[in-house]
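Sanity check

After download, print the first record. It should look like this:
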Amino acid sequence: MLCIAQKLRRLEKRFKTFQNRDYEKAVILYLAIQSFSAVRCVIDLIENGKDGYTATIVDSNGKKYVTAVSINNLGNSGKNYKQYKIGDTISVTGVSWTDHEGNTDLPAEKITLIQ
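Expected structure tokens:
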């Protein structure tokens, strides 16, 4: 897991347009409503998109997550991007949140195939 300093450096890129005081408020709010997660799951469903795909993944407790696997999120000019298949067991790391319907979104910042 990333330490707080690493999270803040990543957040700085997302909130760099804010003035200093607004930036601090935005970071506090961002950390309050979101959490950093590392989840080991099996891919249940894949929907292909423009620069990647959206996968519905299920952990060992049966909890479902929706993860966006995109070239942009994984960084390094697409070198970290891989197309996985339904049934693959993967580890997904990223900032997660739960929407108003109770669905948990987990955009992949790091994804690893577990064999």
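If your output differs, re-run the checksum step. Summary of this record's structure: Residues 20 and 26 are 10 Å apart (CA to CA).
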